[in-house]
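[Primary structure, fold]
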Amino acid sequence: MSTIGVALMIMARESHVNTHLVAGAIIAGAYVGDRASPMSSSANLIATITSTKLYVNLKNIVITGWLPLLVAGIIYFYHLAIP
C-alpha cells in the first residue's frame, strides 16, 4: 500500500483526479487483498482457527463479496467519471 499507493496518489494528483477517492480505493483494495489472498496471514489464521479449508473460505469470500465490490465500483466510477 505504501509503495504503489504513493505512486498512484502522485499520478492522481497530476491527473487532477480526486485524491480522496483514490486514497479510499487504495485502502479498500489493501483490505480486500489482505482478506482474500491465499498468502494472507489473516486468511490462513481464520482457516486454522475454524478448522476449515483455506480455499473453501476464499470461495465463500468471493460469493459474499461480489455485491459490495460491484456497488463500490459503481460509486467510484460515478464520482470519477462525473467531476
